[in-house]
Amino acid sequence: MATTTPVKTTNLKIAKELNISFEGLSYSAKVGFLKRHDKKVLKNLNGEFRSRELSVILGPSGSGKSTLLNLLSGYKLKNISGVIKVNGSPRNQKHFRHLSSYVMQDSLLHPLLTIREAMRFSSNLKIGKEMDDVEKKIRINEILELLGLTDMKDVYTGKLSGGQQKRLSIALELVDNPLVIFFDEPTTGLDSSSSSQCLQLLKKLADSGRTIICTIHQPSALLFRMIDHIYAIADGQCIYQGSCKNLVPFLNELDLVCPESFNPADYLLEISTHDYGYQNGRLNEKIQHGMNQQYRKKLSINDKQTDQQQVLLLPKIETNPISICVKKAKFSSKLQIFDPKSYCNDSDLYSTSFLRQFHFLLIRMFLLISRNPSMSVMRILIHFVVAIGIGLIYNNVGDSAKNMMNNFRYVFYSVMFLMFTAFSSLQTTFPLELPVIKREHFNRWYSVRAYYVSLMIADIPIQVFCTVIYILITYFMTNQPLEFFRFAGFFSVNLLVCFVAQGFGMIVSTIFNVKWGCILGNMIICPFLLFSGFFVQLKHAHHLLHWLFHISFLKYALEGGVYTIFGFNRGKIECDDDEELNYCRYSYPNQLLRDIGMQDCPKNSTTNCDVYMYENQKADFSKVICILILFTVVFRCIAYFIMRYRLKN
Ligand SMILES: Nc1ncnc2c1ncn2[C@@H]1O[C@H](COP(=O)(O)OP(=O)(O)OP(=O)(O)O)[C@@H](O)[C@H]1O
């Protein structure tokens, strides 16, 4: 017992400060279209980024800064060689995600949320029930105060300036108190004053005990002086690592003398881009691929004391998942080294439960829909206008035997129209939201499953409403039979087609971007249309093509629609006053079903043909409903797995 207590204290302290080191880190990207080959982007990098230091990765454009940041944060996981360590132990990516956040170059925000709302959603998604609303509010206020956003709480994020958006991006990630924060080009697009404010803020975060790693393309002299640790790369190799003060002496030792009036960062950049001949090899050799630590800043005792005081600037690290894991581990006597794996299980990856994530995502989606109703209003309007148009075109065809073929066309058109509008309804949502979702998902706000389910559910009310409007108007204007089961059946089939088409639209949108989705989506859906049974009947098609009919969900939808309108023993229909014809072919709608190849009465049938057809229609209609439900489930599952794959890669 006597030996256990001090070990716990030490390790809790270690767990609150993380040093990230890497050894022999290389990364190759696959390039080329026909002739694929590996392009070495990072070559044998070594180094260490410590807590309480503002570390900056410098280098010319295309040198590999963002790639290194992506590797260290775990955003890129493939084609890597070498080791990344956290406090000396090999990084466990899953558990490292508990501890870190990634603020991307573009401030990817929902423009229609206010700062207050964005912060509330962030805290509700990232922090579970262990903190009540009052505590969350206090924390949000503290963070906004720290970032100078208090006066703008009720401003829409889309109306903020670039610098304010950047600060908000940081604020959103601070709510769960990450120990390590990665920033990709935090000063890009900011003027010098905002850049310096931004870097001051990062310095504050570092001083409070965090590990801050960011990339900066070309820092001004002012910014350069604020940096604690520089990691410079050129052509994918390390050309310097150490403090900014030691950079000039380091270059001097290689006879590269920085003029006094020059910003050393600019001078280093000029050297790295071969303005003074090719020097990168020499620099890389002298810094020993990043292994040479002699140019690092040495912390004086005074520095350390100041740092200890600065820790108080930010909320205490309490609700961070690692703290939860550490709490669980407090009773573990095995707490010898920092290894969250030993006491964090997989379900801890997100700080909140699936239901909580789903709940807040759904609220956020409804809020965003209500703030930008133009899309929904447009959908409703289109359904209304088209329904009136179709109602006029096919006016009263429903109870006229002479117009049975026109009535069949009405059924076909309804299925197609609802299918196409539903297909394109969600086609743009995911590709447009993808960058934001990627950021939030990577920073453990919510799982793909929670996002996907809420996206699906959020659209149901509007889709149902649009379908109701269309069917109600056209059904009555075309004078279809006033029998509830026929109306309900026709509505159900059409609603299911919408759900199938939305699932199919989701597959297309998860594979392609908006442009390609719009071009290819309609082309991909055309074969389903061709094999719906409207243009060519199955029995007339070549037998090698029959399977295409069987996988066309539109064939089932059309059959379902036709059965509800013409089937189920629908009685004799009046033939109007066509005096030229005393023979009316479709007085009995079963004849139409035979003509369009949807029902056959076997020649040798012993039972009454009408009874036989009625029984078959009942069975076929149930089959149609089941198949459409199956298509809905299968398409949506496929879309989910593709989305998961895309968000995880
Ligand atoms: N997945 C990839 N496929 C092909 N090339 C890649 C890939 N990832 C990185 N590269 C290449 O590696 C090099 C370094 O890219 P990276 O984005 O890391 O540079 P950078 O230093 O951050 O540049 P910038 O400052 O312009 O953002 C570039 O030439 C880039 O084209």
From TrEMBL:
Domain ABC transporter: from-to ranges: 20-260
Topology relative to the membrane: Multi-pass membrane protein
One Gene Ontology cellular component annotation held by this UniProt entry: plasma membrane
UniProt entry tagged with the keyword Cytoplasm: no
Keywords for the protein's UniProt record, in alphabetical order: ATP-binding, Membrane, Nucleotide-binding, Transmembrane, Transmembrane helix, Transport
Subcellular location: Membrane
Domain of life: Eukaryota
Molecular-function annotations in GO: ABC-type transporter activity; ATP binding; ATP hydrolysis activity
InterPro entries from the UniProt entry: AAA+_ATPase, ABC2_TM, ABC_transporter-like_ATP-bd, ABC_transporter-like_CS, ABCG_dom, ABCG_transporters, P-loop_NTPase
Stretches that traverse the bilayer: 380-398, 410-430, 451-478, 484-507, 519-538, 621-643
Keyword flag Secreted: no
Primary subcellular site in the record, as a coarse category: membrane
Pfam family, one: ABC2_membrane
Family: Belongs to the ABC transporter superfamily. ABCG family. Eye pigment precursor importer (TC 3.A.1.204) subfamily.
Stored PANTHER family: ABC TRANSPORTER G FAMILY MEMBER 28 (PTHR48041), GH24286P (PTHR48041:SF133)
This protein's name: CLUMA_CG015200, isoform A
